[in-house]
Amino acid sequence: MPVKQAEFKVSNSDPALCPPPDRPEYAFIGRSNVGKSSLINMLTGRHSLAKISGKPGKTQLINHFLIDNEWYLVDLPGYGYAQVSKSEREKFAGLINGYLTSRPNLLCIFVLVDSRIQPQKLDLDFMTNLGDRGLPFVIVFTKTEKLGTVKLQAMLDTYRATLLETWEEVPTWFITSAITSAGREEILDFIRPLNEGFVKERIATTKRK
Ligand code: GDP
């Protein structure tokens, strides 16, 4: 089922000012220029909900979008932009960590990876960090229409082998393209049952009290 309603809620640099954690929430993050804004627009069927970046690494804000009045899609700042100072990088890490540790309603983090680039230490370290903290995540390969079937499969094989050096099993992943909309249904179908679980859990909690 496609997204019916997508509404920008708030942008901020202080996790304490995010909306109340009263709805399930999914965060999208990846290296600058990975295609995050394009993916968010593709998922929501909007042309310009998230701004396609002219200047990578510029947005350092946590953006909340309310989807179908039911769940939050959170656009986190892109990491790994080479031309930022050490103090900027530290500020960024503080912002992301503050966010990740303050959202009890955060059900899954979508880590975006450019399918045309070999596995990068920065992305793998980010995933390891999430795993160490028990934060659930999945991988989203972007721009996959650029690769033919054979190259795409080779990339997935390489990624699988690399991940299995660290992980017992490979996390769930999605093959996407903002150009062809590949992966949209799969991601929305992944989110839907998690939303239902979240609501049920809250109802159960309400009953117990
Ligand atoms: P962000 O910085 O991660 O938000 O990335 P953007 O969404 O701004 O995209 C960065 C660049 O990659 C832009 O030039 C996009 O047009 C391009 N791009 C994003 N998604 C795709 C895709 O699925 N396929 C192709 N071919 N290009 C894409």
CATH level-4 homologous superfamily: P-loop containing nucleotide triphosphate hydrolases
Number of DSSP E strands: 7
Tally of individual helices: 5
Rg is: 17 Å
**Structural class assignment:** alpha/beta
Bound molecules: guanosine-5'-diphosphate
Strand order of the largest sheet: 1-3-4-2-5-6-7
> CATH class, anyone?
Alpha Beta
Domain count, please report it.
Answer: 1
- Stated plainly, the CATH topology is called Rossmann fold
Q: Please summarize the sheet with the most strands.
A: 7 strands, mixed
Task: Provide an overview of this structure.
With 209 residues, this protein is of the alpha/beta class. It has a single domain (6-202), classed as Rossmann fold, CATH 3.40.50. It is 36% helix and 20% strand. It has a seven-stranded mixed beta sheet, sandwiched between helices. It is globular and about 45 Å long. Bound molecules: guanosine-5'-diphosphate.
Short key terms for the protein model shown above:
Rossmann fold, binds guanosine-5'-diphosphate, seven-stranded mixed beta sheet, about 210 residues, alpha/beta, globular
What is this entry, summarized?
With 209 residues, the protein is an alpha/beta fold.
Topology (elements, then pairings):
Blueprint: E1 6-12, E2 25-30, H1 36-44, E3 62-67, E4 71-75, H2 86-100, E5 106-114, H3 121-132, E6 137-142, H4 149-163, E7 173-175, H5 184-208
Parallel strand pairs: 2-4, 2-5, 5-6, 6-7
Antiparallel strand pairs: 1-3, 3-4
The structure holds guanosine-5'-diphosphate.
Guanosine-5'-diphosphate (GDP) is lined by residues 30, 32-38, 52-53, 56, 78, 142-143, 145-146, 177-179.
